[in-house]
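Quiz preparation item.
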């Protein structure tokens, strides 16, 4: 085990040959514009840099932390998340692996059994399907099956969900897949502060964590508070964040969809909340952050205040995250509802390659606005 971990593996070629044109465009910031309201003095930081800084600080703080995956070393990461880490920490802790997710996922889990804290990078979570047996059967279930004798402190991280023009096999959202499995914690940050705080928390956690990023957000800058820049900063796992308080309808979202619930659509350059405000609708937006465990307390408290709910996700609708939230509301807060729950999700089809069809297959700001207006009886019911 340790003999394998202590070798720097050279290789040629990569999955990136499929995705690199899209990735290189995204690395230069061709993404959807989103922002949040922060103090003017807050420092701006890209999501990419926030993830890099979190890895850097945790590698410094704990010698048991290591990073492994395809192109994380010499190439400095397919999305440059691991930029500079090989030079600083060396090939014993920043390990380039062959193109074999089933192999390096298993090695990472085995290393965690023996007390190391691997951070396994998947170039995309679509490729994690090659190693999902190790994630589910080896990582998620071992603590239970060993009667608590073997902890598995490992993080599986990488881009999740739709990117731009990479087709059906590279565009899936896996939040609901992994959230279905007991023994895993599933996190999905939105902003730079979210990403930094949650990744640090995930690395420090004693259990396996699925860390779902979004490549369309990597180059986006967000304000980061002085508190979040401290090396001791981390966010609690299992706690949602109320991004915008409101009175008339609750909107839940995670990852890139938080920006859609909050802010500008890249084509229309309008704000969903502003549109609703002009209609006299005050929307409360909840950034889930943690998909498993799910902060049911915050969600239910909000719905009991607003009496309405719209859930937003870009994954498939059947058995999705929104479906679980809707069930929680029906079980715990049904008597508070003044309208049927509205659920916004991606189309129930494999992702089209054509850009115009891809846009139609994913939730847009207008979809959220229409759903919120339906919930508030400000428009005709959906046909």
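Solution:
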């Amino acid at each position: 085990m340790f003999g394998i971990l202590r070798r720097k593996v050279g290789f040629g070629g990569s999955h990136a040959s499929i995705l690199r044109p899209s990735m290189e465009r995204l690395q230069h910031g061709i993404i959807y514009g989103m922002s949040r309201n922060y103090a003017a003095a807050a420092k701006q930081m890209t999501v990419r840099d926030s993830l890099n800084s979190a890895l850097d600080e945790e590698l410094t703080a704990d010698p048991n932390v290591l990073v492994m995956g395809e192109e994380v070393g010499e190439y400095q990461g397919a999305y440059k998340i691991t930029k500079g880490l090989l030079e600083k920490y060396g090939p014993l802790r920043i390990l380039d692996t062959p193109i074999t997710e089933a192999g390096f996922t298993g090695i990472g889990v085995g290393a965690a059994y023996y007390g190391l804290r691997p951070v396994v990078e998947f170039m995309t979570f679509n490729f994690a399907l090659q190693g999902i047996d190790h994630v589910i059967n080896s990582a998620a279930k071992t603590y239970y099956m060993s009667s608590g004798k073997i902890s598995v402190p490992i993080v599986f991280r990488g881009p999740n969900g739709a990117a731009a023009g990479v087709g059906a096999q590279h565009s899936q959202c896996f939040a609901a897949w992994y959230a279905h499995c007991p023994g895993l914690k599933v996190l999905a940050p939105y902003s730079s502060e979210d990403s930094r705080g949650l990744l640090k928390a995930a690395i420090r956690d004693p259990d396996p964590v699925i860390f779902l990023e979004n490549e369309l957000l990597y180059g986006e800058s967000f304000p980061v508070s002085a508190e979040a820049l401290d090396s001791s900063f981390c966010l609690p796992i299992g706690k949602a964040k109320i991004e915008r308080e409101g009175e008339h309808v609750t909107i839940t979202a995670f990852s890139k969809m938080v920006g859609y619930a909050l802010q500008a659509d890249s084509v229309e350059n309008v704000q969903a909340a502003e549109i609703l405000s002009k209609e006299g609708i005050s929307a409360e937006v909840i950034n889930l952050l943690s998909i498993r465990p799910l902060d049911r307390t915050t969600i239910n408290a909000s719905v009991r205040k607003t009496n309405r709910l719209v859930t937003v996700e870009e994954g498939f609708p059947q058995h999705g995250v929104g479906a679980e939230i809707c069930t929680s509301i029906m079980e715990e807060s049904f008597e508070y509802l003044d309208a049927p729950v509205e659920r916004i999700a991606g189309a129930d089809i494999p992702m089209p390659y054509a850009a115009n069809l891809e846009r139609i297959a994913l939730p847009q700001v207008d979809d959220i606005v229409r759903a919120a207006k339906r919930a508030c009886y400000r428009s005709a019911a959906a046909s």
